[in-house]
Amino acid sequence: MILSLFSAKPEHPLADAKELRRAIAELPLDNAFKAVDEVLAWFESLLSAEGFKPEQLFDTVRQLDEAAQPHLRRLTRDYLHSPRLSKTEERRLWTASTAFWDLLARLYEQSLARYRGKEKGADALKPHLSLIHARLILAYGNQLKWRQYHYGPVEGDIWLRLGQAYLAAESEGVAGRLLLLYPGQSSSSSATLEYLKVLMFHASSMDSLLPAEIELAERLIGHCLPQFVFGSRSGPESVYWIDPAQPLPPVRLTREPLAAPTLRFFAPGNAPQTLAELIRSVELGTVPEEVNLGGQYPARMILPVLHHLAMHWAPTPPLREHRRHQVKSLLTVVNGFEAAFQVFSGKPDGDGAAESWIADNVSLGGFGALVPNLRGDWLRIGALLAMQPEGGSNWLLGVVRRYGRESDTQAAVGIQTLARQALAVELRPRSTSAYALAAGIPGMLLRDGMEEGEVRLVMPPASFDVRENLECEAEGRHLLLTPMDIQESGSDYEIARYRELRSDN
Fold first, then answer.
1. Are 140 and 198 in contact (CB under 8 A)?
2. What is the distance between the alpha carbons of residues 230 and 193, in angstroms, rounded to a whole number?
3. Residue 199 CA to its chain's centroid (Å)
4. Predicted confidence (pLDDT) per residue in 48-86, tens digit
5. Which stretch of DSSP H or E encloses residue 292?
6. C-alpha distances out from residue 454 to 127, 139, 482, 501, 503, Å
7. pLDDT (tens digit, 9 = 90+) per residue, 75-119?
8. 473-487 pLDDT per residue, tens
9. Residues 6 or more apart whose Cβ sits within 8 Å of residue 254
10. Is residue 503 a contact partner of residue 482, using CB atoms and an 8 Å limit?
11. Are 77 and 208 in contact (CB under 8 A)?
């Protein structure tokens, strides 16, 4: 009785090994969101739990972490690949995933703090330090990835905590220790490799990729990880640098930074050669078995990501095709195929959908613009825009190529100009026997940047048919157009190339 008064046994239900096993066994197998949500509830309760011995708390978190992984993978697939995901559901999945990695990082940080504080029994954590550090850095990396799915912003605090975790792993002599981070994995990792993966992820300019492409890029970075070069000294091969002791992301090595003991330098190393081999293989229709992309993807989705990484991992940075000039002027913007078609048809925007953006820089190829008041959820990579510069009378057609949120209400975008003049036309299939009676397809005809005798057509999705010629009236002429190839597809449009066979007056 007297002994029980001084017992340090925690009151938390998961302190009982049997209850922990039961809680894990009862996670729903058919509902990934609910399973992750239940683990989140346990994580929140463990943050303030008292009486756990350091090793016992770590082991409880470790088991919950491992039990949640298959559910997290399913939730990620739902987020990235569900074709009819509502904005509310998308936000719900995003919030659950970001919360999981945030709470997991805080719990692993707590274990390390107890070890460094030399709490009673904390020495038992020593054999687990390499795993704790590697999983902690992995958790930070996943926080950054999920923020990138929403295109930022990323607070400097994450970079500082990430860097501190890596430096601590170094100081404790476990940064380079290889191990399997989770049961069932086929390849080993370490705190250093996980840190390097995060650095290369950031250096690969994910702000011009769609979320599913971002996931593919991260998988490819993981595949190329052994080829990357990382160290404390700058060499001829160094391309980027970072100071893990500062709340700043990595940057390109344009000149030597001020000396500091915590500086680290890294480079793609032999990874570009690996990418070149992968590109050749995918172009031939095969993905090597050792490349784990997390699922089956068509070549048309993999190849753009491979080319994107190859460009950004080149020894010299990708150069802008056109010189940019700093400006400050208003842009009137409408989004989507239907609104753009109305603009180029000469119909005014009567539904109040036009927005005012601020052009920040301009070049022959497009604009950099600030979006001061985000409205709705339509803005994303690949969005089709019609734009009218302040003081101008003509409209331009463009596509969003880069997107980064600076806050919940403001964003910065990079826009490629498709055409400075677009003709709204009504297209009809040539194969239709009665041309005048055929159902018309709205389209925008572009001649900018095309070879003589070629045009581009911007049309609704699934309009392009390589077997079908199209006809239309444009510029007072009857045009016959034969299909060549499809160049790009967006959520509400596609852009295809056609050859102009005949023009009749």
1. yes
2. 9
3. 14
4. 999 999 999 999 999 999 999 999 999 999 999 987 778
5. none
6. 67, 50, 10, 9, 12
7. 999 999 987 778 889 999 999 999 999 999 999 999 999 999 999
8. 988 889 999 999 999
9. none
10. no
11. no
Residue tagged 């603009």 (tokens): 343
- Whether 248 and 159 have beta carbons less than 8 Å apart is answered as yes
Distance CA 349, CA 398 (A): 17
User: Are β-strands 384-389 and 355-363 bridged in parallel, bridged antiparallel, or unpaired?
Assistant: unpaired
CA distances for 309 relative to 216, 249, 439, angstroms? 11, 18, 43
pLDDT of residue 9: 66
Which pLDDT score is estimated for 85? 79
Longest dimension (CA), the chain: 106
**Token reading at 490:** 């967006």
Give Cβ neighbours of residue 141 (< 8 Å, ≥ 6 apart): 162, 194, 197, 198, 201
| Residue 6 near residue 47, CB atoms below 8 Å | no
Distances (CA, A) of 148 to 106, 205, 370: 20, 10, 18
Residues 6 or more apart whose Cβ sits within 8 Å of residue 436: none
Output the six-digit token pair for 260.
């500091």
Taking a C-beta distance cutoff of 8 angstroms, is the pair 379, 410 a contact?
Answer: no
Structure tokens at 477: 């002429």
Question: Over the chain (505 residues), what is each successive 10-residue block's mean pLDDT?
Answer: 49 93 96 97 95 96 98 95 84 96 98 95 96 98 95 87 97 96 93 98 93 95 95 90 95 89 95 95 91 90 94 75 70 92 80 80 85 82 91 89 86 92 91 56 92 93 92 90 92 94 61
Cα 368 to Cα 326: distance, rounded to the nearest angstrom? 9
Distance CA 239, CA 270 (A): 13
* Residue 497: its H or E element: strand 494-504
Rounded CA separation 292/213 (Å): 14
Quick one: which of 385, 349, 343 has its CA closest to 491? 385
H-run or E-run covering 141: helix 129-149
Between the two ends of the chain, the Cα-to-Cα distance in Å is 106
The residue type of 99 is: A
Q: State how far the Cα of 375 lies from the Cα of 251, in Å rounded to an integer.
A: 32
| Global confidence as pTM | 0.85
Pairing of strands 366-371, 470-474: unpaired
Q: Which two tokens stand for residue 45?
A: 């309760």
